[in-house]
Amino acid sequence: MTMAGNKTQPTDASVEAFLAAIPDPVRREDCRRVAAMMQAATGAPPVMWGAAIVGFGCYRYTYASGRTGDWPVIGFSPRKNDLTLYLMPGFEQHADRLARLGRHKTGKSCLYLKKLADVDLAVLRDLVEWSVQAMAPQRIDTPSR
């Protein structure tokens, strides 16, 4: 069981209802395309994590403090300003891919896109697949609830 403090947990909420409720039709379609890409890469069904993250697969992390938790192997969220993709291994070794990706920003493990039309989908798919493969040794795919 995860310890208290892990606010974002998997839920039984409908991913399809969540995606259908996205008001912007372009963002909604982009999210459906990203969901299909991530499901193909992981072989896992989409699961709502908290109120706004669609995740695929699951891995368990442990901090140096001993605190543990579960998190999606890969996921995304249609945030207000960006479509945020969560690619757990980060981007340090991907300068070449990112240079070819198109318009984006990055955080530690977040890839921020305005819309899919701004990026090369083959490069995005490559990043998604690499991220899933890099996380494979840590996958548990059944989050503790």
TrEMBL record:
Domain YdhG-like: 27-131
Pfam families found in the cross-reference section: DUF1801
SUPFAM superfamilies in the record: YdhG-like
InterPro entries membership: YdhG-like (IPR014922)
Name by which UniProt lists this protein: YdhG-like domain-containing protein
